[in-house]
Design a protein that fits this description.
Blueprint lengths: L1 E5 L11 E2 L23 E8 L4 E3 L5 H6 L8 E3 L3 E6 L7 E3 L19 E3 L5 E6 L7 E4 L4 E5 L10 H7 L6 E2 L3 E2 L1 H18 L4 E2 L4 H13 L7 E5 L13 E7 L14 E6 H9 L34 H8 L8 H12 L7
Length: about 350
C-alpha cells in the first residue's frame, strides 16, 4: 500500500492505494457518453510509456530510435515526456484543487487539452490532470515528476493467486444496457487480436463456436487468408485443461489484473494474453445456473426475469487498441503482418473494426 504526496511540500494527494496492472483500455475513448472511472477505488496503476509533451512526428524520428522505444511500425506521433504517469480513480484524490484556466473540454467535462489541471491545495504546485469528459474514462493522472510514492503501514492488499481468481470469477459482461457491446471487451479483444495474429504466422486459424467466435472469429476471417485452418484457438488457464501441443493450439490465457503477467501453461504452446475479467466470462459463464443450486420455485410461482440482452450489431474490436498493441510487437516487421497493420491504419473503421 502507498500514498502519493506532493514532491514540493509533502502534502498527501491520495488515499492509501494498492498497485494493479494498467487496464488495456486506459488510453482509449468510446462513443459519446459519460464513462465510469477507469480505476477501481483503492487502486492505482503506472503507465510505463512516456506521456505528454513534447511530441514528435513519426517522420522526425529514426527507425533505431523508435525501435529502442519498443515501437516497430509507424504511429502518428510519439511522446517524449516523462514515463511513469500514475492513474487513480477521481474519488481517491486528496488535497487537490482545480486550476480554473485549464478546465476546458470537448463536451461535458474536462479532457486535459490545456495540460495538467489539478494543483496541490497546500503549495499550489501543478500535480495532475483530471479527465471526465464524455467518451473518456474518468481518471486522475498524476505527473510522475510532481509526486512521490510513500509506502504506508498497516494491512495491504495481497496479490491474489490464480486459483483464488477463478474461485471469485469476477468477470465483465460482454453486453451492457441498453444492448451495446462493452467497451472493455472491445479494447481487450482488440489488444489480444494483435497478439493472436502474430501467433498465427499468417495462416488460417479455427475458433470455437459461441462467444469466442462472435468476438474473435469475424476479425480473423477478415484479416487472415481463406483456407482450411492450420491452428486452433483454445481457452487455457487456471481451472481449464492444458492445451494440446499436438494439435497446434494457440492458447488464450488470462492476464493477471494485479501483476499484469500472463498465465503460463505447462505445455509449450503459443499464448495470447487477454484481460482476466473478459477471459473469466469466456471460460466459465456457461457454468452459471439460471435457477438456485438448491431448492426450486414454489408451485404456482413463475419466473419473470428479463430476457438476456442481445447486442444491436456485430462485435467490433477496438481498432486503436489493436493498432497500439500491434505497433509494439516486433513481429509487425514481417511483411504480411505489416500489410495488415497498414491496411487497418489507413481504414480503421472498415470491416471488421
Amino acid at each position: 500500500m502507498a500514498v502519493f504526496v506532493c514532491a514540493s511540500c509533502g502534502a498527501a494527494l491520495t488515499a492509501r492505494l494498492s498497485q494493479v496492472a494498467l487496464p488495456v483500455h486506459a488510453h482509449h475513448s468510446y462513443g459519446h457518453e459519460l464513462l465510469p472511472a477507469l480505476m477501481e477505488s483503492g487502486t492505482y496503476a503506472v503507465d510505463p510509456e512516456p506521456s505528454g509533451p513534447p511530441w514528435r512526428q513519426w517522420s522526425e524520428i529514426g527507425v533505431d530510435e523508435t525501435e529502442a522505444r519498443g515501437v516497430f511500425a509507424p504511429v502518428p506521433a510519439l511522446s517524449f515526456g516523462a514515463p511513469g504517469a500514475i492513474v487513480v480513480a477521481p474519488g481517491d484524490t486528496r488535497g487537490t484543487v482545480l486550476i480554473p484556466e485549464r478546465c476546458d473540454g470537448y463536451c461535458m467535462g474536462l479532457d486535459g487539452r490545456d495540460g495538467p489541471n489539478l494543483a496541490c491545495a497546500q503549495c499550489g504546485r501543478t500535480v495532475a490532470t483530471r479527465i471526465d469528459d464524455c467518451s473518456l474514462w474518468q481518471a486522475v493522472w498524476f505527473d510522475p515528476q510532481a509526486v512521490r510514492r510513500l509506502p504506508t503501514e498497516g494491512p495491504g492488499h495481497r496479490t491474489v493467486d490464480w486459483e483464488t481468481l477463478v474461485d471469485e470469477r469476477q468477470d465483465a459482461p460482454p453486453i451492457e444496457p441498453p444492448g451495446v457491446w462493452s467497451p472493455r471487451w472491445e479494447a481487450a479483444v482488440g489488444a489480444a487480436l494483435a497478439h493472436l495474429l502474430a501467433a498465427s504466422a499468417g495462416t488460417p486459424v479455427a475458433v470455437p463456436h459461441g462467444l469466442l467466435a462472435d468476438t474473435f472469429g469475424r476479425a480473423l476471417d477478415a484479416l487472415l487468408p481463406p483456407g482450411p485452418p492450420v491452428r486452433n484457438v483454445v481457452l487455457a488457464g487456471p481451472g481449464l485443461p492444458d492445451p494440446d501441443r499436438a494439435v497446434s493450439d494457440i492458447a488464450l490465457v488470462p492476464r493477471h489484473p494485479q501483476t499484469g503477467t500472463s498465465w503460463q501453461p505447462s505445455a509449450t504452446v503459443d499464448t495470447v494474453p487477454l484481460a482476466a475479467d473478459v477471459w473469466m466470462h469466456l471460460a466459465f459463464q456457461h457454468d452459471r445456473l439460471p435457477v438456485p443450486a438448491t431448492g426450486g420455485m414454489p408451485e404456482g410461482v413463475f419466473r419473470d426475469d428479463p430476457l438476456p440482452m442481445h447486442p444491436w450489431g456485430a462485435f467490433r474490436p477496438d481498432a486503436r487498441a489493436f493498432l497500439h498493441t500491434l505497433a509494439r510487437l516486433p513481429a509487425v516487421r514481417r511483411p504480411w503482418l505489416r500489410r495488415i497493420y497498414d491496411r487497418v491504419s489507413n481504414h480503421p473503421y472498415a470491416r471488421p473494426f
